[in-house]
Amino acid sequence: MILSATARLAGVLGWPVAHSRSPRLHGFWLERHRIDGAYLPLPVRPERFADAVRSLRDLGFQGANVTIPHKEAAFAVCDEVDATASRAGAVNTLVFRADGAIAGSNTDGWGFLEGLRQALPGLRLAGMPATLLGAGGASRAIAAALLDAGCPRVALVNRTRARAEALAAALGGPVQAAGWDEAADLLPATRLLVNTTSLGMKGTPSPDLPLARLPDDAIVADIVYVPRITGLLAAAAARGLATMGGLPMLLHQARPGFRAWFGVEPQVDDALARFVAGDVPETAEAA
Ligand code: ATR
């Protein structure tokens, strides 16, 4: 790749950042559209984060993605944030405006929903009570997106029940908090079950739930994408349920940033999924 002197630049800020698939994902789109631009991994220590963001802006970058552990700090460094970021209290996409303002948005929840809609066309969230495992940043973003999309009830199940209670209060609306011991009893009334914890990642044990108690038309999703088929997804598929892994959310959350920085609306399709999944092991045994 040879850049011109007017190449557009973006990247992903994380600490560490070596695990991120975002450079591979954006690199695929840059090549596909023959764009004069680059997307770089940007490892930045937490204590240097705000200065690093302002430096990127001053260096003429178009913007950046933000990943663990910087999403709350990114929210704080922004001059303006959109409604979703405001509700999530976290930012994953930064755009540097021509006047120097730093604008933040959070596309994680939107990306999750877009993935679901693409995988299951005709999906009607208005009729789908959801149960989310976990009460961290990912849970918050997905819960907010589900509520905005008309989901009638969201239950937040968390190891630390108090954290689920705090998140339920912050989100407002038809949200209930529960501990792990209550999870099994929530399943019969759950149409969408989402694991937002790190359980199941890279060979760690998957959440242990009696999936037989879910309705036959329930959907089970996992935001873990290494491995591609987590223990939870394998168990759900064995139970005959529709499933979605973590990869679609990763691919779709990237679209708004790419469009803002490089001026092209990118598509999520099989070629992209195969390319990004190409270096992700399929099962826990292979991870
Ligand atoms: P993220 O921003 O990626 O969502 P996070 O804010 O660190 O990450 O949240 C991690 C979530 O995974 C939390 O809900 C956490 O539960 P606690 O609030 O009780 O810590 C959950 N989690 C992580 N490891 C877990 C484990 N071994 N068992 C159960 N829940 C776990």
Low-confidence stretches are: none
Work out the strand percent: 15-25%
Q: Tally of extended strands?
A: 12
SSE pattern: EHEHEHEHEEHEHEHEHEEHEHHH
Main β-sheet: number of strands, strand sense, barrel status? 6 strands, mixed
Average of the residue pLDDT scores: 95
Helix content class: 25-40%
Work out the helix count: 12
Structure overview:
The protein is α/β, with parallel strands linked by helices and 287 residues long. It contains twelve helices and twelve strands. Helix 5 packs across helix 6 and helix 5 packs across helix 10. The longest helix has 12 residues. It is globular. The chain starts with 7 loop residues before the first strand and ends in a 10-residue tail after the last helix. 2'-monophosphoadenosine-5'-diphosphate binds next to helix 6. The site of 2'-monophosphoadenosine-5'-diphosphate has 14 residues, from helix 6.
Topology summary:
Layout lengths: L7 E7 L7 H11 L4 E7 L5 H10 L4 E4 L4 H7 L2 E2 L1 H6 L4 E4 L5 E4 L2 H12 L10 E4 L3 H12 L5 E5 L2 H11 L3 E5 L3 H4 L5 E4 L23 E4 L8 H8 L3 E3 L2 H7 L1 H8 L7 H8 L10
Parallel strand pairs: 1-2, 1-3, 4-6, 7-8, 7-10, 8-9, 10-11, 11-12
Antiparallel strand pairs: 3-5, 5-6
Helix pairs in contact: 5-6, 5-10
The site of 2'-monophosphoadenosine-5'-diphosphate has 14 residues, from helix 6.
Give the gist of this structure.
With 287 residues, this protein is of the alpha/beta class. Helix content is 36%, strand content 18%.
